[in-house]
Structures are given as C-alpha cells and as structure tokens.
Design goal:
This protein is of the alpha+beta class. The chain contains one helix and four strands. A four-stranded mixed β-sheet has the order 3-1-2-4. A hairpin with an 8-residue loop joins strand 1 and strand 2 (18-25). The radius of gyration is 12 Å and the shape is globular. The relative contact order is 0.26.
Length: 76
C-alpha cells in the first residue's frame, strides 16, 4: 500500500499555510488518525516524514510505522 503525506491547513485555510502534516493511504483525504483533510491540500512523499519545517501528526506517524516495514533503501 502506498502512503503519502497530506497537509492540514492552519487558521484561515490555504492562506494560513500548512499547520501540520498527516499520513494518508494512497490518495485519500482522510488521515490515518481519522482527520478529514482538504483533498486539494499539498501532498509530499512518505519519505519526507519528519523532514518538514512544520510538525507531523504523532498519531499518523505511529500508525504509519506499524503499517510500513522498515527498508533501509527507502529511508536514506
């Protein structure tokens, strides 16, 4: 199963910028933590988890790590 990161906007929606990054399965707009996200919000590759200026959702991270086996070649 492919995962990607999807942004949650801050106050003011898109104009408020990214508040937090969540993990989603495939191209879904519902985060692994259950939060409904804007389907048009920015996305990033899963390998960018923890490498953003903004915080990442702790709950999404926990689910993602349990679902995805660690492969050294995918996590430089």
């Amino acid at each position: 199963m492919m995962h990607q990161m999807r942004a949650e906007y801050g106050a003011g929606g898109e104009a408020g910028g990214v508040r937090l990054w969540h993990m989603v399965r495939g191209s879904q707009s519902v985060a692994m933590c259950g939060r409904e996200l804007d389907p048009a919000a920015p996305v990033r590759e899963a390998v960018d988890w923890g490498r953003t200026a903004e915080l990442c959702c702790h709950t999404c991270g926990a689910y993602f790590l349990r679902e995805t086996p660690y492969l050294a070649s995918e996590h430089p």
